[in-house]
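The methods section describes the discrete structure representation at length, but only in general terms. The central task, working out the structure tokens from the amino acid sequence alone, is never made concrete. Nothing conveys this as quickly as seeing an actual entry. For illustration, here is how one protein appears when written out as sequence plus structure tokens:
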Amino acid sequence: LLKNLRSSVKFKKKKSCDLTHDALFCPTPTGLEGDEDLEFLLTGGELVKIRSRTWKKNRFYKLQEDCKTLWHESKKTFMRDQTFTIDDIESVRKGRQSEGLKKHTDPNMEELCFSIFFKGRKKNLDLMAASGDEASRWVRALEKIINNMRNLNRQQKREHWIINCMRKADKNADNQMNLKELKHFLRQINVEVDDTYAEEIFKKCDTSNSGSLEGAEIKHFYDLLTHREEIDVIYKQYALAEGQMSARDLLNFLLNEQREEATPEDAYTLIEKYEVDEIAKQKKQMTKDGFLMYLHHDDGSILNPAHKPVYQDMSQPLNHYYISSSHNTYLMEDQVKGPSSTEAYIRALMKSCRCVELDCWDGDSGEPVIYHGYTMTSKVRFKDVIQAIKEYAFKTSDYPVILSLENHCSVEQQKLMAHHMISILGDALLTRPLGNTMPTNFPSPEELKGKFIIKGKRLNKLNAIFSNNSIIDEDTVSEEDEAADVKENGQKKTKMKLAKQLSDIVIYCKSVHFHGFEHARDNQDFYEMSSFKESKAFSLADTSATAFIHHNMDKLSRIYPAGSRTNSSNYNPVPMWNVGCQIVALNFQTPSKEMHLNQGRFLPNGFCGYVLKPEFQRSPSSQFDPGSLIKGPWLKRQTFHVMVISAQQLPKLNKDKAKSIVDPLVRVEIHGVPADNASKETHYIDNNGFNPMWNENFSFNIYVPELALVRFVVEDYDSTSQNDLIGQYCLPLTSVQKGYRHVPLLTKRGDVICSAGLFVHLMLIDAE
């Protein structure tokens, strides 16, 4: 956390909430005291900022004393101070990794260059150091402090946030806080109080009557501010051993409130893990600080910690899994004039997307390009995209990546596409089925780890690979693909020519036209798959749900957004998962409710991009229909009870207006089969984003829990216009932990809001 702030990671003897004067005004990240890389950033140095071949300017960069903000000079008179926070950074990449550096610098500058990539749509920062060693030092130091910030636990992040707000409120930097600065601080942390109450707090803490708070007085103010009444109530109910929780008290809490199958050993383990007071730990007791620490860690989170790593059976056939999938992956924005970029692929892959789309067209220079055809979207070279995919495909997940080709190229440029994929992807590219005999089913994600699978047209059946007499000399191969009818730009469907080299690397995902479920059952091999426009897919899900589910037991299905979604909006993916569709492709570049649901669906199982479908979507004997509540193993009636208790440190939405404070409300949504879909919300609370409290109870009837997703939404209430999103979080109902739990909050784009969260009580009861 900060220097002298008692760390919950290291579990020092001092309490985690104890603050000193130095902790407020001379912060150093936990574990980095005296660190050479941190000192390097604090000292700063000159770098070359690069925007074009001709715009290359020297700028001084340094980490500010809060150890959270990077400052750099600007020559513009109206922009003297330019800053961005460590939290704004998505990644730091060494070398000419950005499109700008590749375009505006020479290859011999590779070792000198690095880029800072930001969350959201903020442009990346391309920089060049004086030497390769200096560039490496910047990258190493920045990555170290970024990782340090990300590895803080929830309690530390909240304390860190409050302390930084205190520093900002100290306008004259005298390490004290007068009444005016205290009022400014309260607005900073999203609390609106009247002058009388502010003066009352101030007088209560100003024991020296000096007219300003300092040292122990600031600590007193901090303790008053961060006091959690709701935690006091819960703790006192179970702390029966001289005002503290004994191991037996903690076990009772775990059994009665958290509904865990806990043992005395589990209670001892939690005390050893989270208790910050050594004397209490020796007595096998848990103080209130240790209890709060437990609630802020994974064991006290809403997401079952057993579901965070890969925990599902990954040896099932590939089509037995939902697969995180992207549509028009190359786009950063809309589908009419938005930019195409390798960065879009990197971002999708780093979010564990396992199926990306490549819309391929002939390039003017003889090299195939990727862009949204017949539009003003920019173009990116196919070769560059494949290189980026190779470098980033398996950084967050080892499981296979499907490259979905939408091929509009001439035969000659198709040959180049095949050449680039074979030469760049190498042994990771699947060019023949696993094993020595013709397969009858898909291999598993486990068997395909680290592999790329090409989805596209194929000239012949897969068994031709194993049949010597069916091998046709390339010179005599017809490049006319009889199954490949392409509808281009709204024109009549036409046949397309297909290069043998490209055809030969299509193994488990051969694209074929859909002629109906019966035709597919009787005529299609397991590796022959169809893509469905959303309107067609939703129609089939409504009229033939059980047939659709059985189709997906044998084959893969890909669903994609309608072409009319020119703004790159998304359709609801849940009805498609309900009928067992695996590749439900969404516009990853568009932050939306639909993407929140997608992030929630793939949150558990190691966030690896693959989630095993329920048994009733895999068993041939199943007659499951999501629109019908007929009895079956899928019907497990439950009542989901949710008590929304409080929220902590919600961010200000309008940071430009000092007096703008949010009026938060919480909505709880269930997304699943039609009978389970529901939404309920709390009342809004006036002018309090710091510690609003609702204590409102909701209950939901759940019929098919294995398909249900729970989404928490926090909004800023507005009586005259649409509410603004403050934060959200989504996860499968089957991954929810019962009892008192903290819920992290994410931005609209899916990034963690470090300091913010909800506190709830959850119960899932089987219906009689």
In short: The mean pLDDT is 87.
